[in-house]
Amino acid sequence: MTYVALLHSIVLGAGRRLLMADLREMAQELGLGDCRTLVATGNLVFHAQAAPVRDIEDRLERAFEKRFGKHVDILVRSAPDWLRLTAENPFTDGHPPDVCVRVMREPLGSDILGFLEKYRRDEKITLVGGDLWIDFGGKPSESRLLSVLTTRRLGVGTTRNANTVNGLAEMLR
Q1: Contact 73, 156 (CB under 8 A)
Q2: pLDDT, tens digit, for every residue of 9-38?
Q3: Which of 76, 54, 58 is nearest to 5 (CA)?
């Protein structure tokens, strides 16, 4: 089975970032096959025996912490699930760098939209399959929404822009 893994962070400490070659090497040492990365932001595509994604996440997180000395949340999706997420992008007419999805470990409930409303200006937001899609309509770094897209507020998740989402989908085809 083919999977996508998304690291919440590649920052290992002051002035230290994870190199994608080190991520691929760690994954290969776990017995994962055909390990490939996309851009230097912690996106990994690999082959593994079919297993519950939570088991794969735990395995990757433990190996990461052991090897790099820091816990990082890692979210995993099967290839079919990733391709579905890509196809369900509700903002395909938006500018891809400004359209993002917060991929969640546990699906968000619709009540989150009300919570986020007070931080929203012109951004468009919607839930699809428990993941939060946002069309920032401009630079995401200039949005007040960014400050609340945290693990503490939303639960374990990580954000990727539509270019990365689509790039990972291409790697799966």
Answers
A1: yes
A2: 998 888 788 999 999 999 999 999 999 999
A3: 76
Q: What is the pTM for the complete model shown?
A: 0.95
List the one residue out of 90, 85, 65 whose CA is nearest residue 157.
85
147-166 confidence digits (pLDDT tens): 999 999 999 999 999 999 99
Q: Are 6 and 158 in contact (CB under 8 A)?
A: yes
- Long-range own/partner contacts, residues 164-169 (CB < 8 A, 24 or more apart): 164/38, 164/39, 164/41, 164/43, 165/85, 165/86, 165/89, 165/101, 166/86, 166/96, 167/38, 167/39, 167/43, 168/4, 168/38, 168/43, 168/45, 168/82, 168/86, 169/82, 169/83, 169/86
Burial call 32-48: b when 16+ CB within 10 Å, e when fewer: beebebbeebbbbbbeb
Query: Given the DSSP bridges, would you call strands 43-47 and 2-7 parallel, antiparallel or unpaired?
Result: antiparallel
Amino acid identity for residue 9 in this structure: S
